Amino acid sequence: MSIFHLHSRPVHLSLPEEEAGASRVFVGSFLILGLTAVFEMGISSVSGSVSLLSDAFHNVADALTGVPLWVAFFFSRKKPTARYSYGYGKFEDLAGVMIVMLVLLSSAFSITRSFGKLLHPQIFLHPGWVALASFTGFLGNEAVALLRIRAGRRTGSVSLVADGQHARVDGLVSLSVLAGVTGSLTGHPLWDPLVGIFLGVVTFLIGVRMGRDVGTHLSDGIESGVLETIRRAALDEPGIREVFRVRARWSGHWMICDLRVVLDQPVSFDESGQRARAVEERIRKAIPFMEDVLVVAMPCAEGDGSSLLSKNARSEDQEPGKYETHQ
């Protein structure tokens, strides 16, 4: 799951309602997975099952992935200032850096403990309680899956639905601890640390993916295909001849972009603004998590407009404003 799973803005909820609903999902998921992990850790401490301990760390990692978005929704209520003119979206990524470090440390601890048991195998105690904790991990992830999927369908967030489906898969991963239980009952002590190493590697891969996403956002990188989606959306608007200098970046869990469009014929100043607004709406429909769109509309000159395009494509300085038109 993404820490940086994308949350589309719903079309039927106001922003305060959306933030309240998202906060309930984040808090609910965090509490469910957190309590599940605490229960698993408790059983692991008395039984000695490293696979159960690894699954507990895995659930902690999943619980923590919602924290950056929760932080972002908190700071999104703060208005931009002279110091933070783009707002406080990057605080989400800073929180993500700390969480990535915690996830990687937990995976390293899990793998280390499991490797130690692999070198010195022993049958763990209380296999019945370990099986119960494994099933509890499954139920906890399934509850989170239902919470996220229902919220995603209600708000129109494809990413929340995907996040819920991921939690459902994690529930099946929790059941893999039963392999260690079977090994304990049948005299195969190596099964438990092998499952523990597997879950530790899964947690490590989660941390790596989170680190990649956080690094991309912090360095103002953008995912493959986003710019082309913006370009195609702008070109779909009637009257647009050319689209160029398309740029986009993340600000927290929202995206901002700017682009220049050349109209297919000379129009009035007011009509240029209307075309720019129409392009913005198309981009927002194509990318629902787009927050700010800056459209520079340039009517073409008499003829083919190529000289105007060339002239303006070399111009880098723009006046500030929501829309800009060149006559």
From TrEMBL:
Keywords: Membrane, Transmembrane, Transmembrane helix, Transport. Residues 313-327 have a biased composition (Basic and acidic residues). This is Membrane protein. GO terms for molecular function: monoatomic cation transmembrane transporter activity. InterPro entries: Cation_efflux, Cation_efflux_CTD, Cation_efflux_CTD_sf, Cation_efflux_TM, Cation_efflux_TMD_sf, CDF_Transporter. Belongs to the cation diffusion facilitator (CDF) transporter (TC 2.A.4) family. The chain crosses the membrane at residues 21-44, 56-75, 95-116, 128-147. Residues 227-295 form the Cation efflux protein cytoplasmic domain. Residues 29-216 form the Cation efflux protein transmembrane domain. The lineage of its organism: Bacteria, Pseudomonadati, Nitrospirota, Nitrospiria, Nitrospirales. Its main location: membrane. It is a multi-pass membrane protein. Residues 304-327 are annotated as: Disordered. It holds the Pfam family ZT_dimer. It is found in: Membrane. One of its GO terms (cellular component) is membrane.
